[in-house]
Amino acid sequence: MITVRVPAKVNVQLGVGGLRADGFHDLANVFFAVALGDEVTATAAEGVTLSCSGPDAAAVPLDDSNLAARAARLLAAHHGIADPGVHLHIAKAIPVAGGMAGGSADGAAALVACDALWQLDTPLPVLLELAAELGSDVPFALVGGVALGRGRGEILEPLAVEGTFHWVFAVAEGGLSTPAVFRECDRLREEAGTGSSDTDVPTPDADPALLAALAEGDPVALAAALANDLQPAALSLRPALAATLRAGTEAGALGALVSGSGPTCAFLVKDAEAAAAVAGALRASGTCRTAHATHGPVPGASVAG
Ligand code: C5P
User: Fold this and answer.
1) Which residues are responsible for catalysis (predicted)?
2) Binding site for ATP: which residues?
3) Is the pLDDT at 305 greater than 90, yes or no?
């Protein structure tokens, strides 16, 4: 039996370029891994089967559409294993369809767990390629820490970061579909008259002030540089998130933004004490389902114990 811990992510910068011919958008995506995470346990079994526990377990698909099952089958196929056998149990803490890459995290964790269970010793570069086939956010869940993702987010460059940053995540009622949020971003750009294709929108780049704030471990500077090009689209689809962002800011957060495609809202705070206070205020505000205090960066998917 192998248990793998895997982090959720928040995008401290999500620069979104134009719509490409393949349906994806070029990104300047600064991923930040946080301690709020899932655990995936692999045990030997007949066929590929899944189970899930946790408060949101009912929202997690347990069929072959789940990225954990797809990861197990992809790894097996890569090694010529015709009839893979594994049961994967997902202990779910990452909000489902929340913009924190929870499904991608489980895919990355399943790659690592099956690799260990089946004693395959797959080199990391190969695991990263398989991860990119599974989804744009899966490679980052393997590496963790803080990294700049280019292309559709899968071309990763680790970034220097000093110390620990403290975060609060406000979990919304219900999720948002990532493709729907990207489509809304394109629609808003068309409406604004700027155009939405990759010939209209300049390729985004990482913000030097944000990179400096990370390297210096400066939460005030990082808070000032937080930026998410998908935020207007998430707010357009879910206007109530404006009240959540306001509640966290009024409770003393240094900075606030929608996490990825949302609807989870992320709040950067000064320290662990401020995190507990802001999480408490958010829970009491009635503007979210629950709130979690956490920290990062933390490593990517790794075998526990
Ligand atoms: O790569 P992944 O399967 O997670 O992406 C889900 C969807 O999100 C894509 O089908 C696409 O609609 C959108 N997406 C995008 N540009 C990216 C990443 C994702 O448009 N860079």
Assistant:
1) 9, 137
2) 95-105
3) no
